[in-house]
Amino acid sequence: MKNRLLKISSVLFCLSLFAVSCKTVVNDDSTLPKDISERPADENSQKYDLARLDKIKSAIEEEIAKEECTNAADWTFSPIGSKACGGPVSYIAYPKKIENDILPKIKSYTDSMSEYNKRYNITSDCMMPAEPTGVKCENGKAVLVY
Q1: Which of 38, 96, 131, 143 is most buried, judged by most C-beta within 10 A?
Q2: Does 38 map to a domain?
Q3: Residues facing residue 18 across a β-bridge
């Protein structure tokens, strides 16, 4: 009986040690890799900068697209963008009534593209795009005339 009591005591002692040594595991995700959708954008990358340029240009185009072209005399155009070897990438038509608002945005976009070209040593074809001679209205949209 004494031997049996000693065995039971030993088993209980071992179980107690085992129970005490186990602790609740806390999931600490701070050291795990983040899901790509949750990671902050790498603001020092060429891909990020190009996406930012695209976003700026889209905003300019969306602002202009809000205006209906009914009279070509109310519209004009501006160079937009910057080729690596100089000169504009293209031209964009805009209504004269928003000129004071849109031209600074076009200039900012063009300057940002120039900085992008320098920062990433971008090369281009150096072909100068033809400058439009005017603007005409087609189906409510401004179209550049060459």
Answers
A1: 143
A2: no
A3: none
Q: Which amino acid is at 27?
A: N
Task: Report residue 8 CA to chain centroid gap.
Answer: 68
The CA distance from 73 to 108, in Å, is 26
Q: For residue 125, give its domain range.
A: 46-145
Tally of structural domains, the chain: 1
18 within domain boundaries: no
Per-residue pLDDT of the chain (146 residues), as tens digits, is 555 555 665 555 555 555 555 555 555 656 655 555 555 556 679 999 999 999 999 999 999 999 999 999 999 999 999 999 999 999 999 999 999 999 999 999 999 999 999 999 999 999 999 999 999 999 999 999 99
Six-digit token string for 129:
């795009």
Residue 86 lies in a domain: yes
d(Cα 11, Cα 13) in Å, to the nearest integer? 5
Helix, strand, or coil (residue 135): strand
The reply to whether 30 falls in a domain is no
Residue 88 structure tokens: 């504009």
Calpha distance 97→10 (Å, rounded): 92
Q: Give the separation between CA 75 and CA 96, rounded to whole angstroms.
A: 5
